[in-house]
Amino acid sequence: MANRTAQAFPMIPHCTLPRRLAGAIACMASIAHALPAAAQPAVAAGRYHNLGLSSDGRVLWWGTEFGHEKRVPPAYPRQVEGLPPAIAIAAGWEHSSAITRDGSVYEWGYSPYRMRQVYLLQPMLGPCVVGAILSGGHGKDPCGPAERARKARMHVERPMRIPGLPPAVAVAAADSHSAIVTRDGEVYCWGANAFPTKIRGLERIKAIALGQFHGVALRDDGVVLGWGGASGGAIAYQPERSARLCENPGPTPFFIGAIAIAAYADSTYALRADGSVWAWGSSWNGNPALPKDVNPDNKPDAFVARRIATLDGATTLGGGGAPSALTRQGLAVTWFRALFPKPGARQQPSIANIAALSSYSSILALRPDGFVCTMGDNMYGATDPGDKAMEVERFMPVALGDGRGLLNLADAGRAAPPDLCASQDTAAAGPGQSNPPTP
Hints:
Layout: E1 27-30, E2 42-45, E3 49-53, E4 59-63, E5 78-79, E6 86-91, E7 95-100, E8 105-110, H1 112-121, H2 128-135, H3 144-153, E9 155-161, E10 168-173, E11 177-182, E12 187-191, E13 194-198, E14 205-210, E15 214-219, E16 224-228, E17 252-255, E18 258-264, E19 267-272, E20 276-281, E21 301-310, E22 314-318, E23 324-327, E24 332-334, E25 347-351, E26 356-359, E27 362-366, E28 372-376, E29 398-399, E30 423-427, E31 432-433
Antiparallel strand pairs: 1-14, 2-3, 3-4, 4-5, 6-7, 7-8, 8-9, 10-11, 11-12, 12-13, 14-15, 15-16, 16-17, 18-19, 19-20, 20-21, 21-31, 22-23, 23-24, 24-25, 25-30, 26-27, 27-28, 28-29
């Protein structure tokens, strides 16, 4: 990535695939404008599942197995079959994406590309629609079987290569959209309403993040641009066009001086070189960026930023419902209130000796030695596959296992050190409220 740090494993694209809000997903991708010959270990947090990338290019997944409601999800991370060696990964809501060593892009699960194909061939469910209209929404849905059959056709069992794309260096996955950054710093987007489309006005891009109806991109001069629906932390455009994320031209610059970005369904985050973390969007559903005591009426304001913290040496952001940051000293810090030791505490929990992170409803923290510490929501086994506790009431990092011992994405034979995922408290500057300067 352009703003390189001394981290052993620079952050590879992740999705910050956070708690679902009306089908919302958020995802971030940071890039390097050259394709590496081998993979750097990486993690990607999704809504219902997570991904891990090993140093030999294998992709592992754990959590819910989409398309197989009767199949028991794996108790431990399982390798994705049929995928060439990968260099970057992204976890969406019900689909996953990866970039292979030659820059090709693959998808599996409920692929947005396959969605577009199915909707194009079957835009209407059939005669049952008439019955549904006449029933006025009462009684059994006559289109239920047809809808389930159509959705089944959207599922991709084995990774499918997305055609017509230039070589990619970063990928992001959202609810029903995917996006890539090319070697030349351009952005392509596709989803249920569009085949891969180049987003005009996005050039020299080094990072992207997707929310439910909006996207944000970080240019190489620190300018952040937004496009999509104005609902929930997006930057511009009419609500009626918001669902067509990949067809919304004219990204708008709205923030300067950023070194990293992240997104959630209804909010956006930006990090400056001075360590200040900025957030804007809606506070509905208890958004941690704009809590209800700041915005009691839950009114979204896409243009008003709030400084939520200042961290010493922060280099990377993780989005989602469990927003987090990584510092140059290797501290992974979170603002996810459900994980705070005490309500209203000004100390933020953190894990030391971390090289990369990704967050959504859970937080994945990758150590320099390749071990993975996880914490947060585990409703679908996304944090600890072997123990599907419904809630995690406090900041409690867990070392991820692989069925034989502890998972290591760099060296499977490495012995685990003591206090592998020990937590600590980190003091952070109190949040402030301000309007960001505009370009």
